[in-house]
Amino acid sequence: MEQIVIVKDESSFLGIADIVVYGSFLEEQSFPAIMIKAMCLGKLVIAPDLPIIRKYVDDGVNGGKLSPSARNIALIGKENAANLLVSEVIEGYASLLDNVLSLPSEISSPKAIADISKHRKVNWQWILFKDITANSTKILAQEFSPADWAEEKLIEMENTRRRLAEEESTKGRRPGVDDIDASSRLPLLNGAYYRDALGEYGAFLAIANRIDRIHRNAWIGFQSWRVFARKESLLRKAERLLLEAIQAQKHGDTLYFWARMDKDKRNVLQHDFWSFCDTINAGNCRFVVSEALQKMYNLQHDIDPLPPMPVDGDTWSVMHSWVLPSRSFLEFVMLSRIFVAALDAQMYDEHHRSGHCILSITKDRQCYSRVLEILVNVCGPTTLQDTWYT
User: Fold this and answer.
1) Which of 101, 173, 264, 288 maximizes the CB count within 10 A of its CB?
2) Sorted alphabetically, which CDD domains does this protein's record hold (predicted)?
3) Beta carbons within 8 Å of 121's beta carbon, 6+ residues apart
4) Count of beta carbons in the 10 Å neighbourhood of residue 80
5) b or e along 196-205 (b: 16 or more beta carbons within 10 Å of the residue's beta carbon)?
6) Regarding beta strands 19-21 and 44-46, do their DSSP bridges make them parallel or antiparallel, or are they unpaired?
């Protein structure tokens, strides 16, 4: 006889045992789990004469002293363990249904729990489960073809991709502050070239990537860093009028500009829109925008793609200071992303190779940024509201 202290998996030890002795004399509320395992393994069990033991183990039938018939007794115990607690489970489940289900009057009332046939409470109906298993295997073989599994794999891959993207939106927000790290949200900005070429426009592209993770408001606004550099800000009156117009939905999807082109110090001569854009972009604004729009819309070269920018008393935005509905912002960014791609295809090779930018008379790392600053005028609605700086 050898004494073994069980630490983890008692089933491996029960498998090599000849008999299992249950030595606890405590009045248990349920049949000991160790005895159920032993009986399921076909082991002869010896246990105290306690009510919970006596309920399921009959001396000399499926339990008893060592004797020549011990093996047969153990086999009977194995069968008994397989059907252990059948009566309690069936009666308990029937009682649950009786208390939970409210059957309509036209349905015959079920039999009382006490009237359940005795043979139904002695053995599990394993044969019924065999039929279910066979049918389930057949159904799976019919319904889940290789094409189905391939589609399921694609769905799982898409869910994984979406989960990873959501995690990167989470990582984009800097801890403890109310701003985001654009490079974490838009990998393109990890490269110094595009960080410089796009300037603050890269932040708009980054914010639009899963914007609902960081911005759930109906309206969204931006104010250029140049405004802060000049130590300027909106007048209190302008702020109030802006908020009142948004709250009252006075102008629908109107763009609200508060950095006016006619107030820009670079526009001393009060040029019209395209003339001003040429002035600040080495005289090539119209040409570059025209080429980009032709590429975007696959237009013929004999068609002028530049939208008219009328001089009728209204004004235009500069320096990315504007407010618009979040939905319109996303539409604007979707269109402007195509514009950026067309612009990049037109200018990348020369600018990346030599640093020379067609929109500047000198080498300029921020090559695209001045055109992108006024793009909202070209892409967005033309109804503008005047506000004021202090």
Assistant:
1) 288
2) Glycosyltransferase_GTB-type (cd01635)
3) 86, 87, 90, 91
4) 18
5) ebbbbbbbbb
6) parallel
326 neighbors 217 (Cβ within 8 angstroms)? yes
Nearest partner of 389 among 312, 319, 310, 329, judged by Cα: 319
- In this structure, the number of other CB atoms found within 10 A of the CB of residue 38 comes to 27
282 in Cβ contact with 360 (< 8 Å): yes
Bridge partner list, 221 = 323
Evaluated on CA atoms 296, 376, 281, 192, the torsion sign reads negative
The structure tokens 């139904």 sit at: 120
- The backbone torsions φ and ψ at residue 196, rounded to the nearest 5 degrees and listed phi first, read -75, -45
Pairwise CA distance, residues 383 & 373, whole Å: 18
Instruction: List the chain residues with pLDDT less than 70.
Output: 1-13, 16, 25, 28-29, 59-85, 106, 120-122, 125-145, 165-168, 170-179, 380-390
What is the predicted pLDDT for the residue at 12? Answer: 66
Q: Is the dihedral of CA 258, 262, 265, 267 positive or negative?
A: positive
Nearest Cα neighbor of 378 from 249, 286, 299, 300 is 286
Helix/strand/coil (H/E/C) assignment for every residue in 76-113: HHHHHHHCCCHHHHHHHHHHHHHHHCCCCCCCCCCCCH
**Helix/strand/coil for 229:** helix
Contact 302, 294 (CB under 8 A): no
